[in-house]
Design brief:
Mean pLDDT: 89
Distance between the termini: 79 Å
Structural class: alpha+beta
Helix content: 25-40%
Strand order of the largest sheet: 2-1-3
Largest sheet: 3 strands, antiparallel
Shape: elongated
Oligomer: single chain
Number of helices: 3
Low-confidence stretches: none
């Protein structure tokens, strides 16, 4: 018998190459965000705007009142910042709700 005790040819017996296994990670891109804005008009009651902010944007009475007053004094106010799909849904909900109650309230979205 030769000096090789396992009877092999001197290698480790496997056909495994040595190398580094790398795992490629794709970094998820953050979605674009959109501001949902309410626009002032001379006809929609202030209390209705407060109700919209409470109902569709989960604002408390005090915060909703502050936003409504900002809209009243500055012509526009931010209701929240959302992904495109959520912002679009909120705008549609507010506009539909306002129309059902015969108010000309405008709600829009803009890219942040």
């Amino acid at each position: 018998m030769s000096g090789d005790e396992d009877g092999g040819s001197g290698d480790d017996g496997g056909d495994f190459g040595t190398g580094v296994v790398t795992k490629t990670r794709t970094k998820a891109k953050r979605p674009s965000m959109y501001r949902v804005l309410i626009l002032n008009d001379d006809y929609t009651p202030m209390e209705f705007v407060v109700h919209v902010l409470e109902r569709f944007f989960n604002k408390g009475r005090d915060e909703a009142t502050q936003i409504m007053l900002h809209v009243h004094h500055h012509g526009v106010g931010e209701c929240g910042i959302f992904t495109y799909e959520v912002a679009e849904t909120k705008v549609t909900q507010v506009m539909d709700f306002a129309r059902r109650h015969q108010h000309p309230l405008q709600c829009v979205m803009e890219k942040k």
